[in-house]
Amino acid sequence: KKEVKSKDEL
Amino acid sequence: MNVFRLAGDVSHLVAIIILLLKIWRSRSCAGISGKSQLLFALVFTTRYLDLFTVYISAYNTIMKVVFLALSYATVYLIYMRFRNTYDSENDSFRVEFLLVPVIGLSFLEHYAFTPMEVLWTFSIFLEAVAIMPQLFMITKTGEAESITTHYLFFLGLYRALYIANWVWRYHTEGFFDQIAVVSGVVQTIFYCDFFYLYVTKVVQGRSKMSLP
User: Fold this and answer.
1) What is the mean pLDDT of each run of 10 residues along chain B (212 residues)?
2) Using the 8-state DSSP alphabet, how is residue B111 labeled?
3) Hey, which residues 1-10 in chain A have their CB within 8 Å of chain B?
4) How far is CA B102 from CA A6, B43, B112, B179, in A?
5) Could you report the predicted ipTM of this complex, rounded to two decimals?
6) Do A10 and B9 touch (CB under 8 A)?
7) I want to staple B121 with a disulfide (CB 3.0 to 4.6 A). Which of B20, B50, B69, B106 is the partner?
8) Reduced to 3 states, what is the DSSP secondary structure of residue B86?
9) B112 vs A2: CB contact, 8 Å cut-off?
10) Could you tell me if B140 and B90 are in contact, meaning their C-beta atoms sit under 8 angstroms apart?
C-alpha cells in the first residue's frame, strides 16, 4: 500500500 | 529545506511577480494566456486546501497564501481589469483536453483515495501541463515579448531547481515522492525547447522572441 507523503513542498 | 528548494521557490515567486508587474505596468495582457493563468489558480487552490487542515511551517503557510493571492490577482487583471486587451482569439487551446485526462489520472494514481489526496494529485498533474495554453499561444502567434519569455524562463528554472532539490533530498534523507517527481520531470521537459529558444534568441539581445 502506498504511503501518504508529507506535503512540505509547495 | 535546502538551497535548491529555496532557490526554486524564489524563482517561482519571481516568475509570478514578473508577469503581474508586466500586466500592471503595460496596462495590457496581450500575449498572455488567460487559460494558463486560470489553470495555475486552480492548481494552487486544489493543492493548498491543507492550509485549513495541517500546519507545516510559517514559511510554508505564508508562501501558499502569497501564491494563491498573486495567482488570483493575475486572473483578475486578465479577465476583469484589462479584459479589453486580452487576446482571446489566440488563446484558443482546448483546456478540456488537459482537464479530462488529468482528472482521470488523478483518480487512477494517488497516495490515498480521499478527497484531499485526489485533489492534491490533480493539482500536481495539472501543474505539469498548465503552461501548455501559453506555449500554444506563442506557437500560434509566432512570437513572444521578451518580458513574457523572462516569465517562462523563471517558471522553467523553478521546475529544474525542484528536480535538483529532489535529487538532494533523495540522497540526504531518502525522500522520494513518486507522483511529484514523475510529473515534475515531465513538466520540466516541456520547457526544454523553450529554454533553447530563450538562450539563442532573447539572451542574445532581441526584444522579441520569434519562432524560426
Assistant:
1) 97 98 96 98 97 95 98 98 96 97 97 96 97 94 90 96 97 94 94 87 74 70
2) S
3) 2-10
4) 22, 11, 17, 13
5) 0.86
6) yes
7) B106
8) coil
9) yes
10) yes
Give the ranges where B174-205 is alpha helix by DSSP (H).
Answer: 178-197
Model confidence at A2, pLDDT cuts 50, 70, 90, reads low
Do A10 and B56 make contact, defined as CB atoms within 8 angstroms? no
What nine digits make up the cell of B131? 503552461
**Residue B67 distance to chain A (closest CA, Å):** 9
**Which among A4, A6, A9 has CB closest to B117?**
A4
Partners of B210 in the beta sheet? B143
φ/ψ of B173, rounded to 5, equals -125, 5
In angstroms, the separation between the Cα of residue B85 and the nearest Cα of chain A is 31
How many Å lie between the alpha carbon of A5 and the closest alpha carbon of chain B?
7
**At B147, phi and psi to the nearest 5?**
-65, -35
pLDDT, tens only, B90-101 = 999 999 999 999
